[in-house]
């Protein structure tokens, strides 16, 4: 397990994040997400504001790749597995995030 | 075929672009590219400055998904097929792009 350093945490939380998944036919998808939160040294919490295709893709494959960069082109790529929560602790967490107050937090 | 409008062209050419591909095991990858150029109404030319994994992935699957957004979160997603040129007209084109003069244009 690679730990997410404070430097990586900062860049992920302060910039848009590109989140790539694959569909059931092995075709890639990428969407942009905001307000990603580092909630453990190896966990990124992402709110489903508007991610229909990503949500569908995660139902068939949990593999994800995440890329982030700042305005100076410093960037990182993280590879891992994602889990989609329809309820429970993390669902509650994103619903209560101030950043999500004007958006649907599914 | 969906045509790339002037509005989409502008946003693609003026912002970083997230380019998603899949590897031979159907795992997603995303990398960020700059200086994408619209070279036809349905064609985006992207320089391989630093895209090792993407290059490897395109050897096994030509499926790509491209996402782009500006600072105001206006964004687009394009889905299609990619071809990697090691020589020829488009290779020459990217080598001669002024934006690539300080970068490797593979």
UniProtKB/TrEMBL annotation, chains A, B:
Residues 4-93 form the Pyridoxamine 5'-phosphate oxidase N-terminal domain. It comes from the Bacteria. This is Pyridoxamine 5'-phosphate oxidase N-terminal domain-containing protein.
């Amino acid at each position: 397990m690679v730990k997410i350093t404070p430097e990586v945490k900062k860049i992920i939380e302060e910039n848009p994040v590109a989140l790539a998944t694959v569909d059931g036919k092995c075709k890639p998808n990428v969407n942009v997400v905001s307000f990603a939160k580092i909630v453990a040294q190896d966990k990124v919490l992402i709110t489903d504001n508007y991610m229909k295709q990503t949500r569908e893709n995660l139902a068939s494959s949990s593999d994800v790749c995440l890329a982030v960069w700042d305005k100076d082109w410093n960037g990182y790529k993280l590879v891992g597995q994602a889990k989609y929560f329809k309820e429970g602790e993390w669902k509650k967490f994103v619903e209560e995030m101030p950043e999500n107050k004007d958006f649907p937090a599914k």
